[in-house]
Amino acid sequence: MKKLALLFLTALMSSAPLLGDAGVLIPRNKQQPNPAVLSLEEMEITVRIDNGDARVFVRQVFANHTGAIEEGNYVFALPSHATISDFATWDGPVRLPAVILERKRAEEIYNQIKQQSIDPGLLQMGERGAEEAKRSSVFSARITPIPAWGTKRLEIEYHESIPVENLKSYFAIPLRPDAYQSQKAAHLRINFELRTAHAIRNFQTPAKSFSLQLDQNTPHLIQGHFEGQNVNLAEDFVATYDLDAATSDTLQLLTYRNPVSGQPSPTETAPVRSTNDPGFFEA
User: Fold this and answer.
1) Global pTM?
2) Which CATH number, 3.10.450.50, 2.60.40.1730, 3.40.50.1220, 3.30.750.24, labels domain 7-282?
3) What share of the chain in percent tops pLDDT 90?
4) CA proximity to 43, closest of 154, 173, 196
């Protein structure tokens, strides 16, 4: 039987305030996450902020605790200035990148493939319902199949521009519960890196649930990590910092090239991204 990589994706934007619920997988025919059916076994978040450009990579592994093949709706709340750059699931050792389609067309293809008993997966993008419109920025993907007593690995990457107001910057990953019940990560790791040409001071991560252990703490480089077991995702991960006023009026020329840009080939079992994409500079 032929297998297709089908991931149904919806990117939704509105002007409402940012709401939580990042990385929730809801079983079919359910309105809330149910860890008795699908539980979050692993979650790794890697944050790299380079002079106001934040790249966030999230890897999650969900476990199916039933003897049936499951289907779930994956929901990820995005910050208002964020843009999805990559989304994929894994079928064993094979990485299956997503393909974005208009919502109605994606639904039609999805239903046709399910009727043929072929493992589905596509992306949809388009209109939103009344409940979805209340959210500032929501990505959703229909995930199937999730094997019986097995696991499903999901990867999502987005970029976000970090604004500066009155020499202060604020960065957050929306993890706290809002529309859904809070979920627990059996294993959670956060890797954080902040690089800036302008000197910074007063760096803080106020969330008590994720006390960041700093490995580097200099005016131009902050590196830290958090690792925990059975972590309740009840708070957003937040980082705040100030630009040093003594150097705020100096002109800096910044150059940037994404070190892992370029989508990998979907046929590779250990995909490697291209590093030949052009960069940019900013003054």
Assistant:
1) 0.74
2) 2.60.40.1730
3) 38
4) 154
